[in-house]
UniProtKB/TrEMBL annotation:
Residues 357-513 form the RNA polymerase sigma factor 54 DNA-binding domain. This is RNA polymerase sigma-54 factor. GO terms for biological process: DNA-templated transcription initiation. The keyword Metal-binding does not apply. One of its GO terms (cellular component) is DNA-directed RNA polymerase complex. Belongs to the sigma-54 factor family. It comes from Paraburkholderia tropica. Sigma factors are initiation factors that promote the attachment of RNA polymerase to specific initiation sites and are then released. Keywords: DNA-binding, DNA-directed RNA polymerase, Nucleotidyltransferase, Sigma factor, Transcription, Transcription regulation, Transferase.
Length: 514
């Protein structure tokens, strides 16, 4: 029989303000800056605070009356450190003045010189220089309103260099367009990973391209610059480099036969089988393999990359008078505050608390408070990391201690998930380089004496052993495991192999120098 009953129970609900705080905390610095810019563009109660106007202002996040932090107001934390630690070195991670750039302009010639007029149909807008270019137009600074970065010399990318060289090739319009398509299809290593049949359908050309024309264009691209560019496989890349050598190069033909037919056997170091297949002696095979190993498997890496994977650190660690000082990076601090004039006008109006403008004002105040809380949480986590890993800053990665997110959470009185969000996609600029927060949380390994060490310290030991090994008799993973055992670190051979692969170090046979 149906009945009606009352039950009392508790459940956790996240308010919109708390949801926003959680979302902001897990964003990276670049994503956070983008979120703030979108809020400045859409919310009329927020205004941007230029860096010059922030000097001396306090972050009044409690009532949302002012923006957050200039560099002078950024909270700092000090971790005790013995005297004689790392010296400066933070200049590379700090913003530089304009005077630190090279103000001497480079000469790149006039705009109407460098290429013949018959390349007018070429559509790529390439600078008229062979190896370098400036970050902005030389003529753009004649009005006196120039920036120091206008004179920074930037290396040409792979595609820019090839487009630049293609201008000098006497090709008709269709062949030139086909070569341009091939150039744009190259990856950063200089390889053509796509099939030529996939490049035939381009509506902007006006005429259909067949595979034969693209194949001819590929051969043209392969001759424009460094040998090996435009290869479709590793074997072809090495073959192009060998074919570019003089014909009287010793053992060139034998090396060419190896890379075209027996490259996998060479990688597995099956020397006996190679001698039988090639019909050569051990000395000739050794000279041919040495010639192959001098070739470049990734010729595209010699050019500037079009996209730089830049990282903006969230906190900066400096050593000041023997102590480690942690501060929030001024470059990522939110420069926004409540627009006082608009807020006062709204307060004098007869708008209700449920009006759209009232909701936007409330969202602006929430954003500023949560942004301040985000900076504060990241700083506190950074303080704790530096305090617990002080030995790292003095002795390097070999001194990293095992640490868990729970250890930081218990010390700061935060939830472990909050610490996880505060360390995800967050970076710390130190005198030893820029490191992700997660780098300071290596897992724990037991030692023979009953103590503990970190996995990062074990990787550092393996790296030191490999660096100090005899190149003609490299240490195998089994020998590395035995050497670690002598130092009291008990790890399995497969663990050593995993750590070596994580550091992108080849196996012992691949490290052997004949």
């Amino acid at each position: 029989m149906p009945s009606i009953a009352l039950q009392t129970r508790q459940h956790l609900a996240l308010t919109p303000r708390l949801q926003q705080a959680v979302r902001l905390l897990q964003l990276s610095s670049l994503e956070f800056q983008q979120e703030l810019r979108e809020a400045l563009d859409t919310n009329p109660f927020l205004e941007y605070v230029p860096p010059a106007t922030e000097t001396g202002e306090a972050a009044e996040a409690a009532d949302g009356a002012a923006g957050i932090g200039a560099a002078a107001d950024a909270p700092t934390a000090v971790a005790e450190m013995p005297e004689g630690g790392m010296d400066g070195g933070m200049e590379a991670a700090m913003p530089q003045d304009a005077s630190s750039y090279n103000d001497e302009p480079a000469s790149y010639g006039d705009d109407n010189s460098g290429y013949p007029d018959d390349g007018g149909a070429y559509s790529a807008d390439m600078p008229s220089t062979g190896a370098m270019r400036t970050s902005s137009n030389y003529r753009g600074s004649e009005d006196g309103d120039s920036d120091a970065s206008d004179w920074v010399r930037v290396p040409l990318s792979l595609r820019e260099q090839l487009h630049d060289s293609l201008r000098l090739s006497p090709l008709d319009d269709l062949d030139r367009a086909a070569a341009q398509i091939v150039i744009e299809a190259l990856d950063d290593d200089g390889y053509l990973r796509q099939e030529l049949s996939e490049l035939t359908d381009f509506e902007d050309i006006g005429e259909a391209l067949d595979e034969d024309r693209l194949r001819v264009a590929l051969r043209v691209v392969q001759t424009l610059d460094r040998p090996g560019i435009g290869a479709r496989s590793l074997s072809e890349c090495l073959s192009l480099q060998l074919e570019a050598m003089p014909e009287d190069t010793p053992h060139r033909d034998l090396a060419l036969q190896i890379v075209t037919q027996h490259l996998e056997r060479l990688a597995r170091r099956e020397n006996g089988e190679l001698q039988r297949q090639l019909g050569c002696d051990a000395q000739a095979l050794q000279a041919a393999t040495a010639l192959v190993r001098r070739l470049d498997p990734k010729p595209g890496n010699h050019y500037g990359r079009a996209d730089g994977g830049y990282v903006v650190p969230d906190v900066i660690v400096r050593q000041v008078r023997g102590k480690w000082v942690v501060s929030v990076n001024p470059a990522i601090e939110p420069r926004a505050r409540i627009h006082k004039l608009y807020a006062e006008m709204f307060a004098r109006s007869d708008q209700t608390s449920r009006s759209p403008l009232a909701q936007q004002l409330q969202e602006a105040r929430w954003l500023i408070r949560n942004a301040h809380k985000r900076c504060e949480t990241i700083l506190r986590v950074g303080e704790c990391i530096v305090a617990r890993q002080k030995a790292f800053f003095q002795y390097g990665e070999i001194a990293l201690r095992p640490m868990l997110l729970r250890d930081v959470a218990d010390e700061l009185g935060l939830h472990e998930s909050t610490v996880s969000r505060a360390t995800g996609n967050k970076y710390m600029a130190t005198p030893r380089g820029i490191f992700e927060f997660k780098r300071f949380f290596p897992r724990e390994l037991e030692t023979r004496t009953g103590g503990t060490c970190s996995a990062a310290a074990v990787r550092a030991l393996i790296k030191e052993m490999i660096d100090a090994e005899n190149p003609k008799d490299p240490l195998s993973d089994v020998v590395l495991t035995q050497e670690l055992e002598k130092q009291g670190v008990q790890v399995a051979r497969r663990t050593v192999t995993k750590y070596r692969q994580m550091m992108k170090l080849p196996a012992a046979e691949m490290r052997r120098q004949i």
